[in-house]
Amino acid sequence: MLDRGWTIFRIRGIPVKLHITLVLFLPYVAFVTSSQFKAIADAVGVPRSDLHLPPLVWGTILAVGLFVSILLHELAHCLVAVSNGVRVRSITLMMLGGVSRMERDVRPEREAWMAFAGPLSSFGIAVACWLASLLPLLAEVRVAFLALALANAVLGAFNLLPAFPMDGGRVLRGLLSTRLGIRRATSVAATIGKGMAVLFGLFGLLSFNVLLVLIAVFVYMGAAGEQGRSQWRQVLEGLPVAEVMTDRLGEAHADERAGEVARRLFRQNLAGALVVDNGHAHVHEHDALDPEHVLGVVTAWDLARPELHRVPDATVGKAMRTDVPRVHTRDDAAATLDALVSGEAEAVLVLDEGEHVVGLVTPADLQRALALLGAAGGRGR
């Protein structure tokens, strides 16, 4: 949940997403900074007569500066990941940090270094801004650099707290994993995160600090999410994708009406449809499709999107997803977990050894497997 957001741009093909927490937080930063800008100037001995731009303008500039700082913080994680041969699937910018979703898990010691790179970059930006504030610049520009230095120092320190979902929690997990194993280390870091969230929340309520209460909710949700993901992985680990997928798939063409395809899926009790090119002949339902002929995938939820209902002649091409991840029947089912739970994909295509499409994994398939395996006490019982 904490790594969902709106894609605002891409960096070298990596989607950069904006989370709702940052959308709400930046205007707050702009308001607080603008209201305190003159006080900051007084604290560093800058006369108010030397301030020319309105405080609201500086508040907005500093909010944008914090946004860039958070982006650089996450890019530091990605740079270390790429240097270790790990592909980055997405970056989600959030309040006081972000989430960089990797293509695969990395060794604990590497994860610790990757996590530490973010706060280290924030401290580096803080030092650079502090040095810039010492240059012979306009007084108000020096005040702005000083405020940005303080903001980045707080950002780095906050993210070093040894609890999920902050970077410090990942550093702690990486250090503990060598002794406790990845699951117990995750549980310890997540439990500490929940405990800190409770303390933040209580202090925020007692001090009537709404921001601290929101931070507490943010931390608790992140810790609980990471703990839940670890438990789900344990349930699915070793289970081949073939045992989770559904093969109840139909076919559709991009120029077909979405409503007609939806009715066909309902009548035939199908989970979704593969959108194939118009030149591809229809195949028997038990045959496999060459993925080169598959243009995309539509599920029931794709066809049910409200915006399609407003356009009577909306086609499947408007509803289909083209960036669907692909796995193989023998792959570990846990490999589909991150893509589906994080919301990066609504379905995962399953290929056989001959690279033909044989099935689909949707969030519903994953939830069903988790529920039944959980009720059965695991795979081996």
What does this structure look like?
By secondary structure, this protein is of the alpha/beta class. It has two domains: 6-236, no CATH class; 241-375, Roll (CBS-domain). The protein is 54% helix and 14% strand. It is built from 13 helices and ten strands. It has helices spanning 20-43, 55-83, 108-133, 139-159, 167-180, 182-206, 210-236, 258-267, 300-303, 306-309, 316-319, 337-341, 363-375, and strands at residues 6-11, 14-18, 88-94, 97-102, 249-253, 272-276, 294-299, 326-328, 348-351, 357-361. Helix 8 links the parallel strand 5 (249-253) and strand 6. Helix 5 (167-180) packs antiparallel against helix 6. The longest helix has 29 residues, at 55-83. Mean pLDDT is 76; it is low at 280-289. It is a multi-pass membrane protein. Zn(2+) binds at residues 73, 77, 167. Pfam families: CBS, Peptidase_M50. This is Zinc metalloprotease.
